[in-house]
Amino acid sequence: MKSDFNINSEMTVELAEMIPGERGKVDQILAEGPVGRRLMDLGLLPGTPIRNLRESPLGDPTVYELRGYRLCLRAEDAARVLVRPEIRFEADAVSDDRTDDGSIRSASAREGKPGLRSIPLPKKANVNSA
Amino acid sequence: MSAVSAASPPGPVRLGLIGSPNSGKTTLFNALTGLRAKVGNYPGVTVERREGALVLEGRDARLIDLPGTYSLDPISPDEAVVSQVLAGEVEGVAPPEALVIVADACSLERSLLLIAQVVAEDRPTCLVLTMMDELAVRGGSLDTSRLQDALGIPVVPVVGHKGLGIRQLRVLLADPEAWSRPPVLPPENRLEQSAWIDSVMSACGAERPDVHATTERIDRVVVHPILGSLLFLAVMLTFFQLIFAWATPAMDWIDGAMGTAADFARGLLPAGLFADFVADGLIAGVGSVVIFLPQIVLLFSLLYLLEDVGYMARAAFVVDRAMARIGLEGRAFVALLSSFACAVPGIMATRTMPSPRDRLVTILVAPLMTCSARLPVYALLIAAFVPQEAAWGPFGMQGLVLFALYIVAPLTAMAVAAVLRRSLLPGEGMPFILELPSYRVPGLRLWLSQVWGSAWAFLRRAGTIILLASMVLWMLLTFPRTEPPANLGPEQAAAYSLERSAAGRVGKAIEPAIAPLGFDWKIGVGLLASLAAREVFVSTLAQVYATEDPDASLRAAIRADTNPVTGEKIFSPATVAALLTFFVFALQCTSTIATIARETNSWRWPTFAFGYMLALAYGGALLARHITLALT
Q1: In this predicted model, what pLDDT tens digit does every residue of B465-480 receive, in sequence order?
Q2: Does the domain made of B13-210 have the CATH classification 3.40.50.300?
């Protein structure tokens, strides 16, 4: 399936705040120096489509899909990448959860029950209802 | 393209193989060179150096397998090896005349960053695309001839494990002088490179592949919160069982065969020093090397099988958070677990860890894991001195002591790892990077060559040191040779000679140093001999005490032994506690020392490991002695 992004958010979140199944595009690398260079070496360049595939059973690290491969990053490293999340969700091979109300899943979702991946978001003002 | 251009310079053409980890570089290297690779180390770093000789269309060539890297822009000394080799800065390694980039066709978009950097080196370069078959399965596509035009360098698709495209590749590699060169070099600035990548991708009509559907289906189970954890535990239990129990029959067989060979040699040779040397020095020394092979072969068979299938990355993914607590990463887990059976294969298993510092910390704490060679020592001392009474509910005192000995060491290892991380070997501050490759059916040839490679590396590199060390120990225990008085029985004669040997004298010389722990010279000789392998402590004590049977009569002998001056028991509860604690911590194992030396390519780290473990052992034993004295 070709990526079918529908980015309508102007807001950015940390990559670590994306939840399983969520898609977005890399906006900016916050780290400088060798760390920032290495993240870019891994293909995390502005504009790169990225998707959170799933979390490890212990909650960290998380595996992302980008540029045709699967990359695991720990939350501390994923916090150094800003992404522009896509609001519209599709059911696909990875995630069968969806939201109808355009709510964004936040990092706080991962502290909750495993089944409850979608909660209306409160923590950061990154909801765009446009 | 002509097979051999008329202008070929004399001597083999040197080709450098460059690619990111998981690009299929190793498979391609093996497909091109067979098993004829020379393996060594680059000076000063732990990075393995592999070079293979091959004949391409009648022309001699050398293929240099450069360490896997995401970038030519190094962030650590180990990564710098690639750019140093390219610049000709590594002593003894001539820079390659031409470069072969290996990239996974599915993640070409990611690899184009590295490709841009390599092409910018401006020397003959070609690109080998692996896993074109997987790209098709995942609904992606790319036009290799348009990619060739866009990059300006030759592009060859191969399926390495099936050998497809290898013949065409060999023809191409034979003549790097004829390779097309790009009219304009790619940009060097990262953001310009990003735009360059986009233009290359659209120029070759690349369709980005979807996620591998089969891999997604398997991953739903394999890294599922509950099923994934259960599978992880099952796999790790299998690892443990494999080297702890299933290797035992083969090890017993080797042990027996070496005994038979030693007896056979004694039968052939006239009795005397030379027969003793052949039987007890040479054959026993060879045996002490070969005895590790069952564990190493079994461990690496499973490890590489799971690695090639794609599971080991998932295992690291599952356990990473727990390992992060002690400053390590998921890939350290198998190495530490294996070290419970034996630190030698455990230390070798760290080869799968990409971060040199993580790898070093893992290597340095692996010998603290309670390996199986400690068990005979624990068994002797516990059976002789710990009362059999029930201590706590259904648990006996003996069992509880053994459990405590087993559990103290790994807890200490965690603490040591955390301390090393914070002090001597701080993290590079670099992101933890782990790729989850798509699951694939492993290639038999690659798997066999990996297992063979690790067994051979052990025999050739650590084995020689172990053999040498065990012969030196034999000499220490034998020379200078004192003829025992004729009226002694064979056991007493052996004890008499041992006491007057170099080892016996060293045991007496170090007595003042070990006296604070309650150890006398006999224990000193045992500690010295146990450097060959911890369990040798038991047989050496049997020899010192001139006992025939190392079980029952040795237990009685050490229970009865008293200090000739004070008349107190040598093996008092305090001494036994100190001795057990000493064996928990001390690096009494030449094989482990040799393996650390070979894997870190230096004598600094084995010295450090021996030193810190000796300090822990001595301090711990002293503490254990005084606590026991206070309690009894």
Answers
A1: 778 877 888 888 888 8
A2: yes
